[in-house]
Amino acid sequence: MEKHYRKIVKDTENRVRISLRRQITDPDNPRYGGFRDDTGIVQAKYAIYRVASMTAAYCCPDAVFYHDEKIFDSIMLGLSYIRSVQHESGLFDYITCNFFSAPDTAFCIKKLLPVYEYLAKKEEKDEKESAVFQAVGEIVESGARGMLEGGFHTPNHRWAIASVLMTCSRLFDDERMAAAAQEYLKEGIDCNEDGEFSEKSAGNYNRVNNDAMIMLSRATGDDTYEKHAVRNLKMMLTYIEPDGSIFTANSTRFDKDLLIYPKDYYMEYLWMGMKYQIPEFLGMCNTIFDIVEEKHITSPDFLIWFMLDPKCRTFEFEERYQPEDYHVFYRESGIARCRSGKYTYTVMKGKSNFFYLHNGTMKLEVKVCGSFCEHRAFKGEEIERLGDGEYHLRQVMRGWYYLPFEQAPDTSDWWKMDNAARPKKTGPDIQIDVWVKEAPEGVDIRVKTSGVEGAPWRVELAFSGVNFLTGPYLDMPLSGSEVLVVKAGDIEVENGKDVLSVGPCFGEHHFTEGKEDSEAKTPGAATLYLTDYTAFDHEIHIRRKE
């Protein structure tokens, strides 16, 4: 992938220039040698990422910074800072969150490992490269030994720790590290048959887990681990939106609803595509760089991997990944992902924003909202596939009231009472059924409520990336903050490139928010409310128009 390699070299050089400006070079500063991140914070992890990129540029004959004296001095200064903030145990702090942290140490060491391995394999190191190799090795080995203490917070932390420990066990011939890794691995890998990991984090932690699985396979010689990564990467092909971004709305982590492009999946697609001869993966590598060029974003920070594995540079594949129409239902994950022509749509269980449609330039998400006891929005408890492009969601909201204790409690202080043990009066219940069915150039959504009469509920349609709305008695620009109730007819929203038509509209009341109503409006979206009193049964037609 020579063209990709050249782009990565160029972007690495730019990273180095930025790093030079961010490095603290005042000897009197207590963080001397560190680097300020975008928020001004100086800490080990950010410094390690900067130093790793700089070392790749320093050692790469094709980079303008190859064996540059100034870059070498900056690398050594950065490594000195990193070593100074590494605890005697070998662990690092992630100062905005975790201290004496084994998982954060794993992420730090993971970034330095390819640098260490590249320099270890280089037969003729000069004096300066040897100095970098020694300093990096001390940090890596000390960190790996510190990780023997263990401790983690989230599911992916287990695999980050295990993969780094297993790799370091091989590099430093330390069986204690392999044994410690096995303590995590014996729990079993949390990748389901869909290819989804526990945190459902397509924007970030899926790739972190994939990296760990590939590292484990390489360190142990057991290809079973990377088969999880292959399964996830196949799933990820169905998570790419028409604008090249990743669908992130079902994530349980920080990446939820963030605009993220798949560039950091590049090496995983390349490695697994080459090894298992999967043309879709190799085509995705080219598609990722098309996205990088189109969106004017920086290519992934993977120069050191091309240097460590020259086959990545010499291997060539010309085709792009071109997704065909698909209807995939990931039952265990509770999500349906569908592509039809120029748009995708998503149906999700357990989410208030249960439906998304993306046509490449605008996004629509749909909720059913109101107030009933502790509930503020419909979240499908069940999802079933009725056919390709046809899905049914269902939720029963149980009504209840506390009753007096059968025997007097030991205290009159409400907060000290065992209220969970109180008897309850149950009912009434609200049942909400939603059907999503694909139609030519769009989707039909039917919403039916039953069980309670006269409750003011609404169907909420939030449009992002639009700037104009037309319809009955409507002809208005949109800023992205409007809340509108439309009583009848169809409306059209547009952005100068695409048009979505929605209807028929209905508006029986204007109760769109109140003291009982805590379901948040979608930030930055122009929101259309279709309102009625329960029980109701409405079908809404959403159509993409040229």
Helix and strand topology:
Layout: H1 2-22, H2 44-59, H3 69-84, E1 92-94, E2 98-101, H4 102-121, H5 127-146, H6 155-172, H7 175-185, H8 205-220, H9 224-236, H10 266-276, H11 279-295, H12 303-308, H13 311-314, E3 326-330, E4 335-340, E5 343-348, E6 355-358, E7 363-372, E8 375-377, E9 382-387, E10 390-402, E11 424-439, E12 442-450, E13 456-464, E14 468-471, E15 474-477, E16 483-485, E17 491-494, E18 499-503, E19 526-533, E20 537-545
Helix pairs in contact: 1-2, 2-3, 2-4, 3-5, 4-5, 4-6, 5-6, 6-7, 6-8, 8-9, 10-11
Description of the structure:
35% of the residues lie in helices and 24% in strands. The chain has 546 residues and is α+β, with helices and mostly antiparallel strands. A hairpin with a 2-residue loop joins strand 11 and strand 12. The longest helix is centred in the first third of the chain and has 21 residues. The model has no long low-confidence stretch (mean pLDDT 96).
Q: Which regions contain 5 or more consecutive residues with pLDDT less than 50?
A: none
Percent of residues in beta strands? 15-25%
**Which structural class matches the secondary elements?**
alpha+beta
- Based on Cα principal axes, name the global outline: globular
State the total count of DSSP E strands. 20
Could you report the average pLDDT, rounded to the nearest whole number? 96
Task: Give Rg in angstroms.
Answer: 27 Å
Largest sheet at a glance?
9 strands, mixed
Helix content: 25-40%
Span between N and C termini? 37 Å
Number of helices: 13
